[in-house]
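thought: fold this chain, then report.
action: predict
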Amino acid sequence: MNELINGAMSVVSTGVIVVTLVMSLIAWFFVNRINVRSSQQIQLLESLLVEQKRQNQLLQRLTDRLTGEERPADEAVSQDYTRLIPER
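observation:
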């Protein structure tokens, strides 16, 4: 009888080890998948940031060029609007 119990216990412990191994591999798969997706999203956000900075520079150049040509007329208008807009 003791031999049957010892044999059954070794099979159960082997089964527990196999189940634990499979569960940890499944958990590793999902964690790795989430990590890859977040890395891709970070790369996308960084590229969007670079693109936004480039567009801001182009917009700044355009507005500087436009305000440089029409500065006397815009100064009077901008002073009126600054008085109307409350500071935060």
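thought: worth noting. The first helix runs from residue 2 to 69.
final: tokens above.
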